[in-house]
Amino acid sequence: MVRHVAAALAFLALSLACPARADDSVYAGPAVAMHGEPKYKPGFTHFDYTNPDAPKGGEVHEAAIGTYDSLNPFILKGVPAGGVGLTFATLTAQSDDEAFTEYGLVAEQIEMPKDRSWVAYTIRPAARFHDGSPISVDDVIWTFETLKTKGHPFYRAYYRNVVKAEKVGERKVKFTFAPGENRELPLIIGQLPILSKTYYENRDFEKTTLEAPLGSGPYKVVAVDPGRSLTLERVEDYWGKDLPVNKGRFNFDRIRIDYYLDENVALEAFKAGGYDFRTENNSKFWATGYDAPAVRDGRIKKAEIPNEQPTGMQGYAYNIRRDLFKDSRVRQALAYALDFEWSNKALFYGQYTRTESYFSNSELASKGLPSADELKILEPLKGQIPDEVLAKEYRAPKTDGSGNIRPNLAIALKLLEAAGWTVKGGKMVNAKGEPLSFEILLDSPAFERVTQPFVQNLTRLGVDARVRTVDTSQYEKRLENFDFDMIVASWGESLSPGNEQRDFWGSESADTQGGRNLIGIKDKAIDQLVDLVISAPDREGLVTRTRALDRVLLWHYYVIPHWHITYFRVAYWDKFGRPAITPKYALAFDTWWVDPVKAAALKQKQAAN
Fold this sequence. Notes:
This protein is of the alpha+beta class. It has two domains: 5-56 and 67-202, D-Maltodextrin-Binding Protein, domain 2 (3-Layer(aba) Sandwich), CATH 3.40.190.10; 313-564, Roll (Dipeptide-binding Protein, domain 3). Helices cover 27% and strands 21% of the residues. Strand 5 (92-94) and strand 6 form a beta hairpin. The longest helix has 17 residues, at 539-555. It is globular and about 75 Å long. The two termini are 39 Å apart.
């Protein structure tokens, strides 16, 4: 982001200095790590996974599925446009090759005591909104208070333990936290996007809008075609462009995002040159959908880029607000109708691994039996958590992949019978004669082919399961109001889980419209485990506590786990350059650039075809 020369020199002087300490108990420096010390020391010039000499210029076209009707991503109303987050700057920026470390962006210095009971940020003098007005402490405080009181419910949960924001200097803002151990708060406050208080004096923050809000980030919105496309343009005089955290990033002059209603249409448009870059989430497409002249002659490149980021959890998620799913034996039984091994062979071309943790592909995932340290956490909860947590390793139901799922359906039948369900006239009914019937709500036709075999197996059990696919807007509205029986849900996880876990699994979030506790979990033991994760004093403690939480979530059978891969599947027209190093925890497409030589060669090849 762009900066004035004087400010750049001031930052350089700060970076070259060692982190200062106001006294023995207060840290002051340009970066803060969740645990341990930041990888990049004062004076670093750029992240290792960027190319500081990457050329600026060119245009990239990307795609999104669905629609949008708002450029305000901070409220519950509306469907926000993809990419609009690039128009806003935050107090700090996170590196993609560390578990969780934040470096100064809008803030040039971070101060906090050893107990992390508060944090103070000093605003960089050069930080500006796109209209040239300076980012002030008042803007930071107004943003925090507005997001917490009027923003998306996520912010209320995320910042719940931040009790006060106050101005303590001309350019310094201090956030004070509620009592209790929560090492994450100084870092997540740093992720606060800064909005202009003045801009909103004559605007209603809580309304959807197609007017791009005043931003301060590396891009600004220059063209809006509601529901069809959005075009962003790089801010040439962006105040932060030469900061170490931004060097080698945000290289495209223009980013256009085109919207498609159907995944199949989007793929065909990509192969025809309708857009430039695509991350592939469909295994069938990846295996069979790229048999095209442009792929065969090298104009389109396919790549599988390994990563070490937690995969999170994707699965068929129950809405346990429904009486039908309150009994965990019913939830466990229905999981036996999902034949992953057959699906992986017949539908996914063997590309996937079954997910058996909410934190797969990381050290946070539970495995084997609980360790001694885990048992110290879990044993006091005996009687409040499933008995299996203490004595067994969670394993998802398995088959031989032949399509013969009868042994698993027999297990499911016994579980359902134990829960009071029996088969009468080919239908699974309870003691009142009510059928075991529910709807699986989808927002993507591509998932229908995956779900139908699951439904067929449920039918063999006598269960009446129906698939319904709706448009994006209707789907989002139904999720906001928890108006569904079962959905395909996903929860992304980081290497440093914290406050967001309250929004995912916390009792308070279960009744919060638009919250991420889609399942409807209200469990005191889980609340306690989430609090322990948030208050973990060190990395070792975080790993132990997260594994304990993982085990309890798994053994409650809140979801029927799906599958995952440990690499990014990307396809792109051969016009890009990319750094020699890919960070462990992100794709980092914002570090790529348009290579003028490759772009010219591609243009010639296109003309010849």
